[in-house]
């Protein structure tokens, strides 16, 4: 789930940080720059592990800061496809179940990857697994907000979210206030998530933890009742 990524960067240390040791100043600057940020095709940066090497610092003309090429290792959150993770249900929508890990919220379990058959309850705003019983009836198992849920990572999606520059000249020359507001509205709606995880729970043992905890308790209770019945049969045979 967490991996070490070896990265290289040119770190700028401002003059007001020159009183610190170079290593300490570099550490602070790297964490300020990367902590809780997503690097494209790398993952969510968590914390600096260590510094592998520091090259000589230079001061560029017109800039009083020092610039140092640094090779370092950073702890990154990027679970492998197939990894099983336990999180909590953040909310549900028709799209599926949204899960949070506390430090990472962009996890979606699509409705097609839920236990089958499932339905979306509009009143409860929750997905419901219609668990089939032996007599042909169905028992509703709700996926409520805040419930711990175990899922398998099925896919990861990285998206480039860096600015791509000012709007084209054609867009700037559009006439009418309505056209301008429409362009602004469309731009504001194009909010991209840099890193998303797609999960699945459509296999035995995955899903809301309480489902399987209760099933385990029921099986233990059935075993205990079976043992008591066997003991009674044994005592009866001895009396005869």
Automatic annotation (TrEMBL):
Pfam families: RNA_pol_Rbc25, SHS2_Rpb7-N. The keyword Acyltransferase does not apply. GO terms for molecular function: nucleotidyltransferase activity. Coiled coil: none annotated. Keywords: Antiviral defense, DNA-directed RNA polymerase, Immunity, Innate immunity, Nucleotidyltransferase, Nucleus, Transcription, Transferase. CDD domains: RNAP_III_Rpc25_N. InterPro entries: NA-bd_OB-fold, RNA_pol_III_Rbc25, RNA_pol_Rpb7-like_N_sf, Rpb7-like, Rpb7-like_N. Residues 219-240 have a biased composition (Acidic residues). It is found in: Nucleus. SUPFAM superfamilies: N-terminal, heterodimerisation domain of RBP7 (RpoE), Nucleic acid-binding proteins. Gene3D superfamilies: Nucleic acid-binding proteins, RNA polymerase Rpb7-like, N-terminal domain. One of its GO terms (cellular component) is RNA polymerase III complex. Residues 169-186 have a biased composition (Low complexity). One of its GO terms (biological process) is defense response to virus. The keyword Kinase does not apply. Residues 161-186, 211-240 are annotated as: Disordered. Residues 8-64 form the RNA polymerase Rpb7-like N-terminal domain. It comes from the Eukaryota. Residues 84-212 form the RNA polymerase III subunit Rpc25 domain. Component of the RNA polymerase III complex consisting of 17 subunits: a ten-subunit horseshoe-shaped catalytic core composed of POLR3A/RPC1, POLR3B/RPC2, POLR1C/RPAC1, POLR1D/RPAC2, POLR3K/RPC10, POLR2E/RPABC1, POLR2F/RPABC2, POLR2H/RPABC3, POLR2K/RPABC4 and POLR2L/RPABC5; a mobile stalk composed of two subunits POLR3H/RPC8 and CRCP/RPC9, protruding from the core and functioning primarily in transcription initiation; and additional subunits homologous to general transcription factors of the RNA polymerase II machinery, POLR3C/RPC3-POLR3F/RPC6-POLR3G/RPC7 heterotrimer required for transcription initiation and POLR3D/RPC4-POLR3E/RPC5 heterodimer involved in both transcription initiation and termination. DNA-dependent RNA polymerase catalyzes the transcription of DNA into RNA using the four ribonucleoside triphosphates as substrates. Specific peripheric component of RNA polymerase III (Pol III) which synthesizes small non-coding RNAs including 5S rRNA, snRNAs, tRNAs and miRNAs from at least 500 distinct genomic loci. With CRCP/RPC9 forms a mobile stalk that protrudes from Pol III core and functions primarily in transcription initiation. Pol III plays a key role in sensing and limiting infection by intracellular bacteria and DNA viruses. Belongs to the eukaryotic RPB7/RPC8 RNA polymerase subunit family. This is DNA-directed RNA polymerase III subunit RPC8. It comes from Drosophila yakuba (Fruit fly). The gene is Dyak\GE21834.
């Amino acid at each position: 789930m967490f991996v070490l990524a070896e990265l290289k960067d040119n770190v700028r240390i401002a003059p007001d940080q020159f009183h610190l040791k170079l290593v300490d100043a570099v550490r602070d600057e790297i964490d300020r720059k990367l902590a809780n940020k997503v690097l494209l095709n790398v993952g969510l940066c968590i914390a600096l592990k260590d510094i592998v090497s520091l090259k000589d610092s230079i001061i560029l003309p017109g800039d009083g800061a020092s610039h140092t090429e640094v090779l370092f290792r950073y702890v990154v959150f990027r679970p492998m496809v197939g990894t099983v993770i336990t999180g909590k249900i953040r909310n549900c929508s028709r799209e599926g179940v949204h899960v949070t890990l506390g430090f990472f919220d962009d996890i979606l379990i699509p409705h097609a990857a839920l236990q089958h058959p499932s339905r979306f309850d509009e009143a409860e705003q929750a997905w419901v697994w219609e668990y089939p019983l032996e007599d042909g009836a169905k028992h509703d198992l709700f996926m409520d907000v805040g419930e711990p849920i175990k899922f398998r990572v099925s896919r990861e999606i990285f998206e480039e979210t860096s600015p791509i520059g000012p709007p084209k000249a054609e867009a700037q020359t559009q006439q009418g206030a309505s056209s301008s507001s429409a362009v602004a509205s469309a731009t504001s709606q194009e909010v991209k998530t840099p890193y998303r995880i797609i999960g699945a729970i459509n296999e035995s043992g995955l899903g809301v933890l309480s489902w399987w905890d209760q099933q385990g308790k029921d099986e233990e209770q059935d075993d205990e009742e079976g043992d008591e019945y066997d003991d009674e049969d044994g005592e009866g045979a001895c009396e005869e």
